Amino acid sequence: MRIAMFFKWDGVTLDQYEQVREKVDWENMNPSAFAYLAAGLGAAVAVVGAGVGIGKLATGALEAMGRQPEMSGGIRTTMIIAAALIEGIALFALVICIILSGK
Fold first, then answer.
1. d(CA 65, CA 54)
2. Which secondary-structure segment (H or E) carries 76?
3. Can you give the pLDDT at residue 1?
4. CA distance 32 to 25
5. Which residue of 3, 16, 18, 75 is surrounded by the most CB atoms within 10 Å?
6. What's the distance, CA 6 to chain centroid?
7. Strand, coil or helix: what is 1?
């Protein structure tokens, strides 16, 4: 009831929301559905975190290259290694999410 009132969905009345809520069998829901939902949310957080981390890494590296162009080779190499480590952690998190969704 509070959700329908808060979001004010177009075309959904409070009575329709209550009818749908009564039809759902909350006590006999399949627990694996929640595992899939948690795995999807975990994967999304892992991917977003990796994207933000690599974005900050690239920003810092490009600013450093702009300040000291003669060091750009070493900075680029360090950036690529760090980006690979971040991607490895993100991939590991995704694998863990997939494994946990299967249990």
1. 16
2. helix 72-101
3. 47
4. 15
5. 75
6. 25
7. coil
- Band (pLDDT 50/70/90 cuts) for residue 92 is very high
Q: Which domain holds residue 56?
A: 2-101
CATH number of 75's domain: 1.20.20.10
Are 76 and 62 within 8 A, CB to CB?
no
pTM of the model: 0.67
- Structurally, the chain folds into a number of domains equal to 1
Question: What is the DSSP code string of 16-68?
Answer: HHHHHHHHS-GGG--HHHHHHHHHHHHHHHHHHHHHHHHHHHHHHHHHHHHH-
The token duo for 90 is 């993100």
